[in-house]
Amino acid sequence: ETMFIFWNQFEEEEHNPNFWYVKGKEDLHASLSMKPNMHQAKNLILFLGELKAPVSGIFNMKEMYKQRMFPLLSSFPFDPNKLVMNSMASDTVYSSHTICKYNGLGLVLYFPGKSVGIVSTEHVQHASLAASYSHTPERGWYSDKELPSEAVTGGCKDIAYQLVHNTDINVILGGGRQYMFPKETIDPEYSTVTGSRQDKTSLVDVWLRSRNNAKYVWNKNDFDAVKEHNTDYLMGLFEPKDTRYELECDPSMDPSLTELVEKAIKILCRNSKGFYLFVEDNGRIDHGHHAGLWNLTGELDTLSVVTANHSHVFSFGGYSSSGNPVLAEDGKSFTNALYGNGPGYQIVNVTRPDMNVTISSSDEYLQQAAVPLDSETHGSEDVTIFVKGPMAHLFHGVQEQSYIPHAMAYAACLEPYTDCLLEDYGICTQFSLVVLMLRTV
């Protein structure tokens, strides 16, 4: 129940009907006073989550509306070969302006003159992020260990290699230590884990040697010690593979997503020409809630786009009071949050188990599912996009997913819209913190 309870928990003043009357008038006045920001976007932030239907429970809607980050556009994640989009194809679409096949990756990360950062709660070689910097036909080629012999013979390079050699990304934060170090290298945090590379090469060392003012960190203490004012490049890899779930994190070792994004922005904004930051929260948020993005920028010159790359087969239903399970016709309780398929299938002999708060509040609890599968699948419905900043009015109606990178490129006068003739605001982007609260399953 904790996944959606914020919809029903009102503050004391919100129980007064007059509160909503006054709020409606204030919101209408604010809407009437809104004018399109026609300036060129100096900075671009794309926050993607592998989420379920953002409007129906993923985002903390109160915070989104407080920050005037309205859902302006609904996007349809489309793959010409599949009914349901996967992360790799979806993220390629967001970066490359075009529809992509289900397992396609493309070399697409071009932001001339701008600093670039990627932040992930998975490993940074994961297909979702690799879509932004590599051209690899297989999403699982994380290191050279995974390359088949024919790929090696054909001169193919693994994704970790391409991350270091193909691009010039200023900030790389997430998991994925294992794929960057030789198999002879023992992991600094887990003595039973080693690197996976067979070429005896430390890609971290290669990355550090080829860049000035570059730093590599693998734990929170070293991460916190990084001074943004004299750091041009930062690589932080905090787990051998994916980062830990929020409930499993060790606060003394693992920076939060909020801290990662904040550090990234402070480093990237040193570039007077602006930056592009791609944040991917790809399923590493556990049941409940998560503080997602602390935005150290202002909406006058920064276009912030918060959306999902696809949905999941997840739904809310029932008429229970806040925090209480629903009672079904069979006399057994069930949670409001249910899956269409997945490992939570619990029907045995045409009966299902009863439910209570103790069971459903467990960290190991699996939401009940209608169809038994080893892993829950993605969904195919539209996802909502929350936008604020320069040219945010371009995001409207229902569009194909490929429209989004076009609108972002136009707002920043990037290829293929370098002739967009938008006014360059030319201001510094040091503003107060804005908190965007995200919620997912």
TrEMBL record:
E.C. no: 3.1.3.1
Gene Ontology CC annotations of this record: plasma membrane; side of membrane
A molecular function (GO) term: alkaline phosphatase activity
Cellular localisation: Cell membrane
Pfam families: Alk_phosphatase
Keyword Mitochondrion recorded: no
Top-level taxon of origin: Eukaryota
Broad class of the protein's primary localization: membrane
Membrane topology category: Lipid-anchor; GPI-anchor
Binding site for Mg(2+): H126, S128, E280
UniProt keywords, alphabetically: Glycoprotein, GPI-anchor, Lipoprotein, Magnesium, Membrane, Metal-binding, Zinc
Cofactor: Zn(2+); Mg(2+)
Positions bound to Zn(2+): D286, H290, H310, H378
Group of enzyme by EC: hydrolase
Co-factor binding comment: Binds 2 Zn(2+) ions.
Family stated for the protein in its record: Belongs to the alkaline phosphatase family.
Protein name in UniProt: alkaline phosphatase
Species for this entry: Sinocyclocheilus grahami (Dianchi golden-line fish)
Taxonomic path: Eukaryota, Metazoa, Chordata, Craniata, Vertebrata
